[in-house]
Specification:
Number of helices: 7
Helix content: over 70%
Shape: elongated
Number of domains: 1
CATH superfamily: Tetratricopeptide repeat domain
Strand content: under 5%
Order of helices and strands: HHHHHHH
CATH class: Mainly Alpha
Protein name: Outer dynein arm-docking complex subunit 4
InterPro entries: ODAD4, TPR-like_helical_dom_sf, TPR_rpt
Structural class: mainly alpha
Subcellular location: Cytoplasm, Cytoskeleton, Cilium axoneme
CATH architecture: Alpha Horseshoe
Keywords: TPR repeat
Length: 140
């Protein structure tokens, strides 16, 4: 007879090993390998928003904003703590910015600022998005 508690525990440990190894690869700048490991972790637990957010960041660092946006949006579907919510919102805002959707990125930078006003990266994002919008308006 299968002990489901032990199986869940084993899956949890295996997922943690994938995530821990992925973080090492991120620190070493090996984002493709990190994505591969996050994929393995997400195969075990598809709604792990920490892995989704981390994979979103990797996609941003690889210049793949569409994939980053998809992961951020998937993470935002699940309930999470404010810190994780802020990280997912930041990834979504950054992805939108790099896709050239400056207005929507500005909306998400503001949403993030509302949740975590102490995060300076949201203020920088607001300024960056406003500057991009102004540059477009001045060109036309």
């Amino acid at each position: 007879m299968v002990n489901h508690g032990k199986v869940k525990h084993f899956i949890s440990i295996e997922k943690k090993l994938f995530v821990d190894e992925a973080m090492i690869h991120i620190k070493n700048g090996n984002y493709n390998k990190a994505i591969y490991l996050y994929n393995k972790a997400l195969d075990l637990e598809p709604n792990d928003n920490n892995a989704l957010i981390a994979r979103s960041k990797c996609h941003l660092l690889l210049g793949e904003p569409q994939k980053a946006l998809q992961d951020a949006e998937n993470a935002l579907q699940y309930k999470m703590k404010n810190a994780n919510m802020a990280n997912a919102i930041y990834c979504k805002a950054e992805a939108l910015y790099y896709l050239g959707d400056f207005e929507m990125s500005l909306v998400y930078y503001y949403r993030g600022m509302k949740i975590r006003p102490e995060y300076g990266r949201f203020r920088l994002g607001v300024q960056k998005a406003k500057d991009a919008i102004k540059n477009i308006l001045h060109k036309n």
